[in-house]
Amino acid sequence: MSTVLPAEWAPQRAVQLTWPRPEGDFARHFAAVERCFIAIAAAVTRFEHLIIACGPDKAALREKLLAGGVRDERLRLYSVPANDVWARDHGPITVFRDGKAVHLNFVFNGWGGKFNAWLDNEITRRLAEQQAWQAPVEDLSFVLEGGAIESDGQGTLLTTERCLLAATRNPQFDKLQIEAQLMHWFGVRRVLWLRHGDLLGDDTDGHIDTIARFCDARTIAYQACEDVRDPHYADLKAMEAELQALRTADGEPYALVPLPMPAPAYDEDGRRLPAGYPNFLIINGAVLVPVYGNAQDEIALARLQPVFADREVIGIDCRALIEQYGSLHCVTMQIPESA
């Protein structure tokens, strides 16, 4: 049986969002967070369909979305209870087995038990019960978040040791056994591991989607840091060296695209927030890039535009999202075409 984990740039049917609740973790920043979600929703529906898991008042939310420029004909709303908004980590990871799509529903345990996640862990199955998905859902007992893996669509997976080898994920497996699991479920032939690279304030134990991303099978955009005074400097320089040492399946070095470090942002308690530019979302015809209201935004967009020459690069203000230690890619999950 042939299994393929498609790259994010493969044709998509839809993107999934899980809508924020006024009483949720974003309560203090709810208005700003909802504006961010509406901006993401409007951008997505310019290019493809949007699936939203939301609270019970779908009519009120639909009205708000349409007023914000979301295209009604591409919008699907489903009432599903949730703990939080991080669809990248509780949404389905889609593979193709002999050309037929399957949604893999891994266990989401709140990034190693840091936060309540029992409702989020049921979202993919509950959406299936409401026929949001066209493909079947397969429940698995392995703990894995979508933000922890990057696929080039050609048999290579990029991930981090800090996350996948965390004792709070799958302590019964060692590194080689985890590689075997990834190869089995995703049909990959190679797993590339990064030991370095972490953003202060990140709750995920070092998700790859915050630090390094495939743009195509030969190109990786990554979070760089050139300020020796920044506490990220040494670790991100070590990650940069790791990326420089990686090779493609045919032995060539990757083309590397360094993205600038955003100006530091802090929460009300003085904790550094995990702002970064690699947390972008690739969709049909566009790349949605988180921006944070500082001078580095335009540099990041300018560096990504030639990499995605066939797509429109669109900045989305995500300053509110980082208040809960995630960004744009973290709140989205793409659903491939024919899925």
UniProtKB/TrEMBL annotation:
Q: Name one Pfam family in it.
A: PAD_porph
Would the keyword Hydrolase be found if you checked this record's keyword annotation?
A: yes
Keywords, alphabetical: Hydrolase
One GO biological-process annotation of the entry reads: putrescine biosynthetic process
Q: A Gene Ontology molecular-function term?
A: agmatine deiminase activity
Q: Tell me the InterPro entries matching this sequence.
A: Peptidyl-Arg-deiminase_porph
Instruction: List the protein's name.
Output: Agmatine deiminase
What organism does the record attribute this protein to?
Solimonas aquatica
